[in-house]
């Protein structure tokens, strides 16, 4: 099990105190990592839970679409922990509107957070990782990386970009000792999917297609994120790992 031991590692998790990010933050901490929690709003419950596990936390609050804040995240993490071993690019938003009515603001808001900030935070973190010839960058994609979805054109575009950014960075940084991969969650029980789960017809349509027979929960991503963050995945690069209950193969 030493392959999966993250003791002594430092992980940045964006959107780390809610939804899927909370589940992954706790999973990394349970495997031994100290956690930098980056959120748009201040939340304390996940930091408290991580501290109870005997791990250290640093909580940072700000807007990841502001590249000044992106650099501050990296500088503060290095200043507090001395290094960054793992980055989980999880923060994201979704706006649901038919494509014919979609606004420029909604398009830009989603693209800027979901893909632009992901790229520039990865770039800033990689500068530290390259000094030591080691690092794990884990991007959170979506099944909409591969499919178009309904009434979420900018979200689908942004998650398609996440998949391609993952592959592009893996191509350039693998030789520098940095593994860049992505997790592809299926339909998960989070705030982002609440409108779908409250629509009886859409909820049933989606549920009927999931071979596992249920929607995913944040804890379902723990194993995947620990694997991609640990030495167990040292020869895995540019891979998009589906955690979707079988949705993609249906």
Order of helices and strands: EHEHEHEHEHEHHHE
Estimate what percentage of residues fall within beta strands.
Answer: 15-25%
Q: For the record, what CATH class applies?
A: Alpha Beta
Helix fraction by DSSP (H/I, runs of at least 4)? 40-55%
Principal-axis shape equals globular
Which sequence of strands runs across the widest sheet?
Answer: 3-2-1-4-5-6-7
Count helical runs. Answer: 8
Write down how many β-strands occur, each being a DSSP E stretch of 2 or more residues.
7
* CATH topology title: Rossmann fold
Radius of gyration: 17 Å
Q: What are the main properties of this structure?
A:
single chain, 250 residues, alpha/beta, Rossmann fold, 7-stranded parallel β-sheet, 7 strands
Please summarize what this structure is.
Helix content is 43%, strand content 15%.
What does this structure look like?
This protein is an alpha/beta fold. It has one domain (2-190, 218-243): Rossmann fold (3-Layer(aba) Sandwich). The protein has helices spanning 19-30, 45-52, 67-81, 104-132, 153-173, 194-197, 200-209, 222-229, and strands spanning 10-14, 34-39, 57-61, 86-89, 135-140, 178-185, 240-243. The chain has a seven-stranded parallel sheet, with helices on both faces. Helix 2 links the parallel strand 2 and strand 3 (57-61). Helix 1 (19-30) crosses helix 8 (222-229), helix 3 runs parallel beside helix 4 (104-132) and helix 4 runs parallel beside helix 5. The longest helix is centred in the middle third of the chain and has 29 residues, at 104-132.
